[in-house]
Amino acid sequence: MKKKKVFYVSVLSVLLCFPLLGFKYSNNGVTSSTSSSDIEVSSTSTTSLESSTVVSTETTFSSSDVNDKSTINQTNDEETENQIKQEAPIAEKFYVSIIDKNYQLLEEPNGEVLQDNGENYQRTFAAQEIDDNGTKLYLLFSPEKQVGYIQPNSTEQVIGQEGKLFSETDVYGSINSADVTLFNSNFQANGTTSALKDHTYKIDGFYNHFDGKQYYLLKDVTDKFVGIVESIAVEKTKDQAGQKHSVNDYYSVVKNNQKVWKNFDFEELGTSELFVDQTFNVKEWYYHFNGTKYFVLYDNSANFKGIVEEGTIQRASSPGGIWKTASQYVTITKNNWTIWKDFNFKNGSSTNNLYQRTYRVTGWYRHINGTKYLSVYDNKGIWQGYLNEDGAQVVDTPGGQWHSTNQYVTVTKNNWTIWKDFNFKNGSSTKNMYQKTYRVTGWYRHYNGSKYLSVYDNKGNWQGYLNEGGAQVVNNPGGQWHSTNQYVTITKNNWTIWKDFNFKNGSSTKNMYQKTYRVTGWYRHYNGSKYLSVYNNNGNWQGYLNEGGAAKAAGAQGTGFSINKSVLVIKSGYSIWNNFGWKEKARTNSLINKTYQIKWYYKHMNGSTYYSLYDSSNGNWFGYVNSGAVRERRGTAHYLGTSRQRVMNELYAHQNDRFYLSTPYRGLSSSNPEPFLSPYGAPNAYGPGMNCTGFVAYVMRRSGGNLNRISGITQGWGSYANAYNWRDALMRNTEYYTFNSIDALLKSGKAQKGDIIYFDPVWTDINYDCHIGIFWGNRSNENRIWHQVLAGNMQSHIFSGTRFSKIYLFPQD
Fold it and tell me: Disordered: where is this region (predicted)?
């Protein structure tokens, strides 16, 4: 080894030889200005002089002494001081970075090679140039110590303590700290990395600073300088995506026109339209070198679904996803599902009590499990929970879901409102619908909790929406059963009484006509008619009868039928009833052969007919009697054994010839009636001639009448040729009406062509006489009679040859 040139220096001289090896640090970082006072020298430094300049290896540089203003102990030895000035010229300090990967670092000039395993490659050191027998070496120092000797060509001299910028290729770094100092290109502090946190940049190069720290020079995607930061604030990667940020969050896709990527080579999987409103698990995210933040989406089964930009999604607080505001109504369609109180799916309740009811939805979530959950409220604003959308149907109005049906209802409220819409502003009263039956084609369970029926009449006209509380559902179109206990009398003899409301099984009312039945209840049918449920006196059901075929009765006696006939009491032992509570008024024993007028009759439910009797003489009501106790006094033709039609046939046959007309009058003069029954057309042995009674008697006999019914009842003079005898016989045995004047007769409407008219005389007149004839008006009010008068047989206006006190009208039937 070459012999070193040795210089003997004091500690002070050594310090003076390296005036720039120390470092000052400002508050913002390292500065390049240093002074010799910043170098700490060991008290054991050598003071011997050799052929080479020697600096003790005990000399150290410490960053902890950067701001230390300690005073270096100086000798007062003026001689030593002078010697330093004369024998130890000050060496210039500079900085170098080791650039040779195969560098050798010597412990001493021409000494042993230090085995540092290349760890100082690209590091920056303070250096002093020395001459070792003509060979130039650099003595390197770190802030803490002397490092060793190195060939100058293994280094590159640099301007500042930061050292050489070593270029990087395809290397990127993500900022992982927000409070590290950011330096500008001159290594002057320029704030912190707060604004750069998580961003990814290209590492354009790095500095291995004299202070032992590594710094990266960062550029953005446009190759614009961003800043220089310490390496501890950067995570390096070869991937432009930058640092992987592991998380376990949930996000919902909120944009439908964004790209979805397969990888960071940006191979497209499609667009976010497929995922919009869906929720995903985000397990990592990246802040790409291109300046965009990307999130990696996974489904509920941890399957990778794609990579999207930050703006495509929105973070959710739970796996339920993000809240989507809505304002709609739904009807619950599942009665065995669960409505949840949270998205842990541990706290829930059955939808059984919510089934088919309508609720308000204020918003919804699309859960990571792929299901949409509705946030459900009742009409009082009470939250019910989260319901899977498949358990409900969205409806257009608060009316709820339409439920189709086909049933009938009877309206049971007469003061409710039936609505035209669910705004409840357009409606009408149910008054006119009360107890009527309607068809329901469907219904709604409204948000207000009520069920509304969609009601139609039997013509298919929609009536409106009726709260179900205003009607009763019935099993058939017959409607609601209305219980009652009343009696009716059948008034139609050709109607049908039905066994069901299909109207296919029925029977005629012919055999029920005018009979009385018990009604236990009724229906107001969908067709608009009221049907009575009819039972006979044995309790046997007869069927359903339209109420128009019966008359309501006050009791089991039935309804009264008006009549105006006479009856003759013919049987004893019968009661005369004061009422149909069977209070007896009298018995028929003392009434035999007495005549009474019937104004009403009743067909009692017990099967008997009862007559309402009136006294013929004064018109006073007498009581009710079973029809079996009397014989009805029918018309003249019936009494004599013929008919009105046969009488009319006889008269019509001769109304225009001289068979009767013009027959001369022959006054009654003997008990033998035959001489007075001899018309022109068929004279007997006595020759033509008739009195008024003879004309009537002959017509009735030629019509088939038995005149002995007159003579056999009365034994009066003149027999059936005497009108008094006809009066007495017919009053006793037939129906008749009395009038005080001809005008009253004509106005009564009772008279029919062919009836017998009898005029009772004024008995106080000297020449009183009666008169009899046949009514010949074509109308009941036409003033015409066919009779035998003194002038002969004729058809004329109605008159009597003498004054009369009363007119009797004896109908033929």
Answer: 59-86
